[in-house]
Amino acid sequence: MPEMSPHARLVGQINFRFWAFWCFTLLATALFFSLTDVFREMLFPEMSVPTLEDWGMLGADFFEKYAVFLSLSAACVAMLVAAKVFFLMLFYKLWEALPHYRARTTPLKATFLLLVPVFNLYWMFVVFPGYAKDANRVLESRECAGGRISQDVAYGMCLTALAGWIPIVGVVLMLACYVFAAIYTFQARSAALRISATNRNTASARGNSRG
Question: Are the CB atoms for 129 and 107 separated by under 8 Å?
Protein backbone atom coordinates (compact mmCIF):
# COMPACT_ATOMS: atom_id res chain seq x y z
CA MET A 1 0.00 0.00 0.00
CA PRO A 2 1.55 3.34 -1.07
CA GLU A 3 2.37 5.82 1.65
CA MET A 4 0.03 8.80 1.90
CA SER A 5 1.59 12.11 0.87
CA PRO A 6 1.84 14.95 3.43
CA HIS A 7 -0.67 16.95 1.39
CA ALA A 8 -3.22 14.13 1.30
CA ARG A 9 -2.74 13.49 5.02
CA LEU A 10 -3.25 17.17 5.88
CA VAL A 11 -6.34 17.38 3.68
CA GLY A 12 -7.84 14.35 5.40
CA GLN A 13 -7.08 15.71 8.87
CA ILE A 14 -8.52 19.16 8.09
CA ASN A 15 -11.70 17.76 6.52
CA PHE A 16 -12.30 15.26 9.33
CA ARG A 17 -11.85 17.85 12.06
CA PHE A 18 -13.92 20.41 10.17
CA TRP A 19 -16.94 18.13 9.74
CA ALA A 20 -16.61 16.68 13.24
CA PHE A 21 -16.63 20.19 14.68
CA TRP A 22 -19.78 21.15 12.84
CA CYS A 23 -21.56 17.85 13.58
CA PHE A 24 -21.00 18.31 17.32
CA THR A 25 -21.91 22.01 17.08
CA LEU A 26 -25.22 21.24 15.35
CA LEU A 27 -25.98 18.48 17.86
CA ALA A 28 -25.29 20.87 20.74
CA THR A 29 -27.57 23.47 19.15
CA ALA A 30 -30.39 20.97 18.72
CA LEU A 31 -30.02 19.85 22.33
CA PHE A 32 -30.03 23.45 23.52
CA PHE A 33 -33.38 24.16 21.84
CA SER A 34 -34.74 20.90 23.27
CA LEU A 35 -33.61 22.11 26.70
CA THR A 36 -35.53 25.35 26.34
CA ASP A 37 -38.71 23.43 25.48
CA VAL A 38 -38.31 21.07 28.44
CA PHE A 39 -37.56 23.99 30.76
CA ARG A 40 -40.67 25.85 29.62
CA GLU A 41 -42.91 22.80 29.99
CA MET A 42 -41.35 21.98 33.35
CA LEU A 43 -42.22 25.35 34.89
CA PHE A 44 -45.16 26.51 32.78
CA PRO A 45 -46.87 23.42 31.34
CA GLU A 46 -49.88 25.32 30.08
CA MET A 47 -48.04 28.53 29.16
CA SER A 48 -50.00 30.40 31.84
CA VAL A 49 -48.73 32.85 34.41
CA PRO A 50 -47.78 30.73 37.47
CA THR A 51 -49.40 31.46 40.82
CA LEU A 52 -47.83 30.92 44.24
CA GLU A 53 -49.77 27.66 44.48
CA ASP A 54 -48.32 26.49 41.19
CA TRP A 55 -44.79 27.11 42.45
CA GLY A 56 -45.45 25.24 45.70
CA MET A 57 -47.16 22.19 44.16
CA LEU A 58 -45.14 21.20 41.15
CA GLY A 59 -45.93 17.50 41.45
CA ALA A 60 -44.18 14.34 40.26
CA ASP A 61 -44.38 15.44 36.62
CA PHE A 62 -42.01 18.28 37.42
CA PHE A 63 -39.36 15.94 38.77
CA GLU A 64 -39.65 13.63 35.77
CA LYS A 65 -39.10 16.57 33.45
CA TYR A 66 -36.30 17.77 35.70
CA ALA A 67 -34.52 14.44 35.20
CA VAL A 68 -34.92 14.83 31.43
CA PHE A 69 -33.63 18.40 31.71
CA LEU A 70 -30.50 17.23 33.57
CA SER A 71 -29.87 14.47 31.03
CA LEU A 72 -30.21 16.85 28.10
CA SER A 73 -28.00 19.40 29.87
CA ALA A 74 -25.24 16.82 30.35
CA ALA A 75 -25.50 15.74 26.71
CA CYS A 76 -25.42 19.37 25.53
CA VAL A 77 -22.31 20.11 27.61
CA ALA A 78 -20.62 16.97 26.26
CA MET A 79 -21.39 18.03 22.66
CA LEU A 80 -20.07 21.55 23.32
CA VAL A 81 -16.84 20.19 24.81
CA ALA A 82 -16.39 17.85 21.84
CA ALA A 83 -17.05 20.73 19.41
CA LYS A 84 -14.48 22.89 21.24
CA VAL A 85 -11.86 20.13 21.09
CA PHE A 86 -12.36 19.53 17.39
CA PHE A 87 -12.34 23.27 16.69
CA LEU A 88 -8.97 23.65 18.41
CA MET A 89 -7.65 20.60 16.55
CA LEU A 90 -8.90 22.09 13.29
CA PHE A 91 -7.42 25.50 14.03
CA TYR A 92 -4.06 23.87 14.80
CA LYS A 93 -4.05 22.18 11.39
CA LEU A 94 -5.09 25.39 9.63
CA TRP A 95 -2.02 27.14 11.03
CA GLU A 96 0.11 24.10 10.22
CA ALA A 97 -0.83 24.48 6.55
CA LEU A 98 0.84 27.90 6.44
CA PRO A 99 4.56 28.07 5.58
CA HIS A 100 6.34 28.77 8.88
CA TYR A 101 8.10 31.82 7.44
CA ARG A 102 4.71 33.35 6.53
CA ALA A 103 2.91 32.69 9.83
CA ARG A 104 2.93 35.23 12.64
CA THR A 105 2.78 32.50 15.28
CA THR A 106 3.11 28.75 15.66
CA PRO A 107 0.15 26.32 15.52
CA LEU A 108 0.68 25.34 19.17
CA LYS A 109 0.80 28.92 20.42
CA ALA A 110 -2.20 29.94 18.31
CA THR A 111 -4.40 27.20 19.78
CA PHE A 112 -3.03 26.91 23.32
CA LEU A 113 -3.47 30.59 24.20
CA LEU A 114 -7.15 30.36 23.26
CA LEU A 115 -7.53 28.19 26.37
CA VAL A 116 -6.11 30.79 28.76
CA PRO A 117 -8.99 32.50 30.62
CA VAL A 118 -9.37 36.28 30.10
CA PHE A 119 -6.27 36.44 27.89
CA ASN A 120 -8.13 34.48 25.21
CA LEU A 121 -10.54 37.43 24.87
CA TYR A 122 -7.59 39.43 23.53
CA TRP A 123 -5.88 36.54 21.75
CA MET A 124 -8.83 35.68 19.54
CA PHE A 125 -8.58 39.16 17.99
CA VAL A 126 -4.96 38.31 17.13
CA VAL A 127 -5.17 34.79 15.73
CA PHE A 128 -8.50 34.72 13.86
CA PRO A 129 -8.03 37.90 11.79
CA GLY A 130 -4.28 37.20 11.82
CA TYR A 131 -4.74 33.81 10.20
CA ALA A 132 -6.95 35.38 7.55
CA LYS A 133 -4.30 38.00 6.79
CA ASP A 134 -1.40 35.53 6.67
CA ALA A 135 -3.30 32.99 4.55
CA ASN A 136 -4.43 35.68 2.11
CA ARG A 137 -0.83 36.86 1.71
CA VAL A 138 0.33 33.35 0.89
CA LEU A 139 -2.45 32.88 -1.65
CA GLU A 140 -1.68 36.25 -3.26
CA SER A 141 2.05 35.56 -3.42
CA ARG A 142 1.36 32.26 -5.17
CA GLU A 143 -1.21 33.85 -7.48
CA CYS A 144 -4.01 31.50 -6.41
CA ALA A 145 -7.47 32.39 -7.65
CA GLY A 146 -10.13 32.65 -4.96
CA GLY A 147 -9.98 31.10 -1.54
CA ARG A 148 -9.57 34.37 0.35
CA ILE A 149 -10.66 34.75 3.97
CA SER A 150 -12.62 37.85 4.96
CA GLN A 151 -10.96 39.69 7.83
CA ASP A 152 -14.24 41.52 8.42
CA VAL A 153 -15.93 38.17 9.06
CA ALA A 154 -13.12 37.23 11.47
CA TYR A 155 -13.55 40.46 13.42
CA GLY A 156 -17.33 40.07 13.37
CA MET A 157 -17.01 36.58 14.82
CA CYS A 158 -14.76 37.83 17.62
CA LEU A 159 -16.91 40.85 18.46
CA THR A 160 -20.19 38.93 18.57
CA ALA A 161 -18.58 36.16 20.65
CA LEU A 162 -17.33 38.78 23.11
CA ALA A 163 -20.65 40.66 23.24
CA GLY A 164 -22.74 37.48 23.36
CA TRP A 165 -22.74 37.61 27.16
CA ILE A 166 -24.74 40.84 27.21
CA PRO A 167 -28.20 40.16 28.72
CA ILE A 168 -31.25 40.11 26.42
CA VAL A 169 -29.39 40.99 23.17
CA GLY A 170 -26.82 38.28 23.83
CA VAL A 171 -28.95 35.57 22.22
CA VAL A 172 -29.17 37.51 18.96
CA LEU A 173 -25.44 38.25 19.04
CA MET A 174 -24.59 34.60 19.63
CA LEU A 175 -26.70 33.64 16.62
CA ALA A 176 -24.77 36.23 14.61
CA CYS A 177 -21.54 34.72 15.94
CA TYR A 178 -22.77 31.32 14.77
CA VAL A 179 -23.19 32.68 11.22
CA PHE A 180 -19.81 34.44 11.26
CA ALA A 181 -18.13 31.25 12.54
CA ALA A 182 -19.71 29.19 9.76
CA ILE A 183 -18.46 31.59 7.09
CA TYR A 184 -15.01 31.89 8.67
CA THR A 185 -14.39 28.17 9.08
CA PHE A 186 -15.56 27.39 5.54
CA GLN A 187 -13.29 30.11 4.13
CA ALA A 188 -10.32 29.13 6.34
CA ARG A 189 -10.67 25.47 5.38
CA SER A 190 -10.78 26.35 1.69
CA ALA A 191 -7.71 28.59 2.02
CA ALA A 192 -5.73 25.97 3.95
CA LEU A 193 -6.46 23.29 1.34
CA ARG A 194 -5.36 25.61 -1.47
CA ILE A 195 -2.18 26.52 0.39
CA SER A 196 -1.42 22.88 1.09
CA ALA A 197 -1.82 22.05 -2.61
CA THR A 198 0.55 24.87 -3.58
CA ASN A 199 3.01 23.69 -0.92
CA ARG A 200 3.08 20.34 -2.69
CA ASN A 201 3.54 21.99 -6.09
CA THR A 202 6.31 24.23 -4.75
CA ALA A 203 8.12 21.25 -3.26
CA SER A 204 7.84 19.36 -6.55
CA ALA A 205 9.18 22.34 -8.50
CA ARG A 206 12.15 22.64 -6.16
CA GLY A 207 12.88 18.94 -6.53
CA ASN A 208 12.80 19.17 -10.32
CA SER A 209 15.07 22.22 -10.35
CA ARG A 210 17.61 20.41 -8.19
CA GLY A 211 17.47 17.39 -10.46
Answer: no
Is 194 in contact with 143 (CB distance < 8 Å)? Answer: no
Q: Rounded to 5 degrees, what angle do the CA atoms 144, 111, 92 make?
A: 45
d(CA 106, CA 98): 10
In 3D space, the residue among 92, 105, 111 whose CA is nearest the CA of residue 134 turns out to be 105
Distances 49 to 41, 42, 54 between C-alpha atoms, Å: 12, 13, 9
Task: Give CA–CA dist 124/148, Å, rounded.
Answer: 19
Q: Measuring CA to CA, which residue among 97, 86, 160, 154 is closest to residue 126?
A: 154
110-150, pLDDT tens digit by residue?
A: 999 999 999 999 999 999 999 999 999 999 998 887 789 99
Mean pLDDT of the chain: 84
